[in-house]
Amino acid sequence: MKPFTFYLPTRIVFGRGCLNRLGVEAAKLGDRCLLVSGRSFARRSGYLNRLVENLRESGLKVTVFDQVEPNPSLETVYKGAEEGRGNSCNLVVAFGGGSAMDAAKGIAFLLKSGARLEESFAPNEVDEALPIVAVPTTCGTGSEVTRYAVLTDVGRRRKQVILGEPLTPSVAIVDADLLNSLSKELVAYTGFDALSHAVEAYLSRESKPISDLFALEAARIILGNIVEAVEGVAEARENMLYASMLAGVAINLAGTVAVHGMGYYLTNYHGVHHGLANGLLLPHVLRFELERKLGRLEDAAVKLGFENGVSLVEKIEEVAHRTGLPRNLLKLGVEPSELDSMVADALSYARNLDKHPNPLTPDDVSRIYARALAG
């Protein structure tokens, strides 16, 4: 058995209606809160005012920073930190999907350390950040339990990561009522992000016995619930939220592999939703590994109740079709002429490809992308 160290400092508060406990939980960690959210959902839905009121009722002074865009930029994180610093905030509350939570983690790091993001990217590990309370509003990222923040260097069109145990939220408020108004598309896209996390964590060279446990259970739940969740079944959406959290624990231990590394180009150059990019590429990466007879993939399939790896990949493809994911990259506006650029970009994400179960050559990556283009 592989040796491992397991550390999850997050207090997880899970259940419908538990959002009401936000103020009580946050007040244990600080008294001047920076509330970080996206630009639309929090305010449009009325949740922003509700959150501010709840926090103030527990005695916190609240500053709102609701300027986080999808795939948050370094510039946005710096702006948020400036807002928090100007109001002497000693606690960060993140409300939203992965973008809001990742931005909040970057802000918490800047407020505590005074360092610069550009000097702190992985493989460096940060060693300080303000306490973070994370409230996920999608069923995909798992960022409420991870030590990672993925940020975008817009000028270089590149995803950058800061990582370290202090970025792991102190508290996660996981309330499935927040998913009630989530669109079918976002349930599908974020759900496939969570499925990618689960499968990639299991296949990762850094997988561990305990990460396997979380990864397999997450994959089992997602495959059994994502179609109904997209259709709006409340219980299925709650199950997806739980599975997303489990998959977050899995990648916190094992990381992600080539699917994520190859998907970043689609997001950075074509604005493709991160989860959609992963969902489209996942079956192609897995089919490529089936051809290389990856025993780890066969093992996962059997443990998930499938006859073999082919059956598992066919199930993933069926679910992708039923939830409305496009079948090929051409439908996302990607041109065959971009193939060489795509390969070069993917290979630059060594943090993902180095964890891939079998080393990938440039030709391997090109073949996978070519199949994804053809569908």
Could you characterize the architecture of this molecule?
By secondary structure, the protein is α/β, with parallel strands linked by helices. It has 2 domains: 11-179, Rossmann fold, CATH 3.40.50.1970; 184-374, Dehydroquinate synthase-like - alpha domain (Dehydroquinate synthase-like, alpha domain). The chain contains 15 helices and 8 strands. It has helices at 22-26, 41-44, 47-57, 74-86, 98-113, 184-203, 209-230, 234-254, 258-270, 274-291, 295-303, 309-322, 339-347, 350-353, 362-374; strands at 11-14, 32-38, 61-68, 91-96, 132-136, 148-153, 158-163, 171-174. The strands form 2 sheets. A 6-stranded parallel beta sheet has the order 1-8-5-4-2-3, sandwiched between helices. A hairpin with a 4-residue loop joins β6 (148-153) and β7 (158-163). α10 (274-291) runs antiparallel to α12 (309-322). The protein is globular, with a radius of gyration of 20 Å. The model has no long low-confidence stretch (mean pLDDT 96).
N-to-C SSE series?
EHEHHEHEHEEEEHHHHHHHHHH
Give the tally of β-strands.
8
Discrete helix count: 15
The largest sheet is: 6 strands, parallel
Low-confidence stretches: none
CATH class of the largest domain: Mainly Alpha
- Strand coverage percent: 5-15%
Class derived from helix and strand content:
alpha/beta
Please give the share of residues in helix.
40-55%
CATH superfamily of the largest domain: Dehydroquinate synthase-like - alpha domain
Tell me the span between the first and last alpha carbons.
Answer: 39 Å
Spatial sequence of strands, sheet with the most strands: 1-8-5-4-2-3
| Average of per-residue pLDDT values | 96
* General form: globular
